Amino acid sequence: MKKILAALLAASLCAGAFAGCSGDSGTSSTPSGGTGGGGGDGTTDYSQQEAYTVKLMIPGDAKTEDCQEVSEAASKILEEKFNTTLDIVRVGFGSYPDQVNLMFSSGEKLDLLYNNRDIFVSAVNNGQIVEMTPYLEEYGKDLLEQIPQERWDCTSIDGKVYAVPANKEIAVSWGFACVKEMADATGVDYSNIKTEEDLLPLLRAAKKMYPDVWPVVASYGGMSTMNTNDDLGADIGSLEDCTDSSNTTVVNWYATDAFREICERRYEWAQEGLIIPDASSTSEDASAQIASGKGFGMFTNTKPGIENELEKKTTKEMLVFTLTPVYTTTTRLDILWYVAHNSEKPERAVQVLNELYTNPELENICINGIEGKHFEVKDADKGIVGYPEGVDGTNTGYPSYPWAWPNEMISYIWDGDPEDLWTATDEWNKAAVISPAMGFSWNNSSVLNQVTACTNVKSKYENALVTGSIDPDEAIPQFLQELEDAGVNDIIAEKQRQLDEYLANKE
Amino acid sequence: MVEVHKKSLWKRLRPYFPLYLMMVPGAIYLIINNYIPMAGITIAFEQFNYSKGMWGSPFVGLKNFEFLFKTKDAWIITRNTLLYNMAFIVLGTVLAIAVAILLNEIHSSLAKKIYQTTILVPFLISIVVVSYLVYAFLSSDSGFINNSILKPLGMESVSWYTSPQYWPFILILVNVWKGLGYNCIIYYATLVGIDKGYYEAAVIDGANRWQQVVHVTLPSLKPTIITLTLMAVGKIFYSDFGLFYQVPMNSGPLMDVTNTIDTYVYRGLMSLNNISMSSAAGVYQSLVGFLLVLTANWVVKKLSPDNALF
């Protein structure tokens, strides 16, 4: 009797569980089924479309009421044109990835979202985002026209487009930033600093003059390396020097002489007291340490306007030395816009994205908020804006992060930035050396075990090595051995195979 | 037959009916919160696809579990997780009981309250704050140990965050310090409940303080010790993420002694965004925990049937 009861109970439990869950999957699969039939009415006047609300998610903590107000202002434009309303949701940078994952898995309504490149391949493989190709032809005409093919390549897998790359600086170079006042005080002639090695006299002089300040500080336990390697999307296996277009051999960057040289130099520096101790376990941003007077300089990426950007963070006038050529790779298209799998009408999401990318009025509202409340036009001719009286970065209800939006280059320039910021950015992009593998998207799904193991090995050694915390003579051979045990060669071989295939198809 | 059985079942249950009624809310909570979501175990065996959902994703068998066993890290993380937890269980229990007994011996109620609160405070501190407290001791730049202890003694300063040999002790110390107050309260509550008559009888028989502890206090604590230990054994394959990730400041060179299953999975999958592989790790942990509880309970049952959990 007891057994029967138990069995019954178990059965009803299971039934409940199944019912509950199949219900879930039912709702989440309907939208993707329904999308096929949507769209395609062939007309160009979209104002009579069925009413729809596009929910958009972007990081950067903002007040809910301010978001609503901005959404309403943006909706006015969109309603007239597309009978669409916009609902902007902003979440803090720290919790953004978790929030996005939660939205994906709960099946809650979500149409458009910002995310960085890191999740691109996994999001495609996991079915978290929707393929855009079928909608671009009709709803994203301007996108197709304005975004160059090599950028589309970077956001496509097997010829299918999955994301729209944000239009911003897409090239990078690496360099060293330090406090100008202190550098001047040392009296060292810094006009000829071209490589990391050249920094040494300046760092030594700074150390001598300011014994309580560390010449080089680290950011969250890491330090950028001054080189031009292309990591081909993610994971281990890179082109050692992507400015050399003739070489497309995938190598283990940690096994190269260039990497060893960097580690050896930094280890020497650390021994000399030029790098802050415990650098690999800092949990602070380098600019915060410079702001608090603990640090003199840091390694950083460079781009047009970088001095201003760093000055805002460090509150000190900064001097930036560029130490590598300007180059661009697939990974540099780091901000992408996706359509979520739980979008009920992906075509409408693409339509809004298209409008955001091309309509300065709409894009400016979304980026900067309400005129008079969140920003004020300082110079209408030059398109320069600033904070209204009494408002600043710490108390605004709608902080402005232009680079996070689809197209910052059609938005206002903030007071303090160079007036020609967008032209300079455009020139910067054009001047960049393009990696021969630009456009290649690495798909790691066949070597996931090796990737997991290698990521762990990497987190054990990488930061400690590039911050000079451990002796490379001992650590690098161990590092390489452990990587090999973790299956790094499988990853590199697979990457090489995919890259060769990509290059062959490209020709 | 069935009829008779039904009646007798009802008859047997009837006297306890109010008790069963009291169990209902808890049982409903358990079913909704712990049993229904168990269907999610399926995710660990498939290549999960968000747009296809839990029942539509392709089944891949045990493939998601491979990454846990493939490398030689598998041995290190399993060893670390098990050994640390065993040390935590043994030391944590012994010290908590010792402190609970000492507390019980204090007669001034004001002093008792002060001590109790003081040892409970660490338990209430967030692990992130704890990690900075530890950092204040160990930092090479401004740390208390290097600057105020080793330097005056004329000893070479130690770079703690790159020296793995010290960390097993540091982590155990931190964990015991943090958890002691809470465990101690549970034992202390049992101690307070022990019938004073036993102690009086012991005193009449000429038992001294130590003999009272050995022959009265400890035997009375036995059921509590067994229950708490069994529960802890069930969690032996889980590690306190904050303790192993935050307290060593995620320092790479320490990873051989600080990497546990949880931190390994976190580091490996954070960038991969792979929900199936993380579920596989979770399933593996609970399965081993489940088997260990069954075994431990079986052993207890053999040794002292009264004290087994089930």
Write the layout of secondary structure elements.
The complex is a heterodimer of chains A (507) and B (310).
Chain A (H helix, E strand, L loop, with lengths): L1 H34 L16 E8 L4 H19 L1 E8 L4 H11 L5 E5 L3 H6 L7 H7 L1 H6 L2 H6 L1 E2 L2 E2 L2 E2 L7 E7 H7 L13 H10 L4 E3 L40 H15 L14 H6 L3 E8 L3 H9 L3 E5 L4 E2 L6 E5 L6 H13 L1 H9 L7 E4 L4 E3 L26 E2 L6 H11 L1 E2 L13 H19 L5 H14 L2 H19 L1
Parallel strand pairs in A: 1-2, 1-3, 8-9, 11-16, 14-15
Antiparallel strand pairs in A: 3-12, 4-5, 6-12, 7-9, 7-10, 13-14
Helix pairs in contact in A: 8-9, 13-14, 16-17
Chain B lengths: L1 H12 L3 H19 L30 H4 L3 H33 L3 H16 L2 H12 L5 H7 L16 H27 L2 H9 L4 H26 L6 H6 L8 H4 L2 H9 L5 H29 L7
Helix pairs in contact in B: 4-8, 4-10, 5-8, 8-10, 10-14, 13-14
| Uncertain stretches of chain B | none
- What is the number of helical segments of chain B per DSSP (H or I, 4+ residues)? 14
Strand order of the largest sheet of chain A: 2-1-3-12-6
- Taken together, the total number of domains of chain B comes to 1
Mean pLDDT of chain A: 84
Oligomer: heterodimer
Describe the structure.
The complex is a heterodimer of chains A (507) and B (310). In chain A, 44% of the residues lie in helices and 13% in strands. Chain A has a domain at 46-169 and 330-433: Periplasmic binding protein-like II (D-Maltodextrin-Binding Protein, domain 2, 3-Layer(aba) Sandwich), CATH 3.40.190.10. Chain A has a five-stranded mixed β-sheet. In chain A, strands 8-9-7-10 form a four-stranded mixed β-sheet. Chain A contains 18 helices and 16 strands. In chain A, a hairpin with a 4-residue loop joins β13 and β14. Chain A starts with a helix and ends with a helix. With 507 residues, chain A is of the alpha/beta class. In chain A, α13 packs across α14. Chain B is an all-alpha fold. Chain B has one domain (73-307): Orthogonal Bundle (MetI-like fold), CATH 1.10.3720.10. Chain B contains 14 helices and no strands. Chain B has helices at residues 2-13, 17-35, 66-69, 73-105, 109-124, 127-138, 144-150, 167-193, 196-204, 209-234, 241-246, 255-258, 261-269, 275-303. In chain B, α4 runs antiparallel to α10 (209-234), α8 (167-193) crosses α10 (209-234) and α13 (261-269) packs antiparallel against α14. The model of chain B has no long low-confidence stretch (mean pLDDT 87). Chains A and B meet through α1, α3 and α16 of A and α1 and α13 of B.
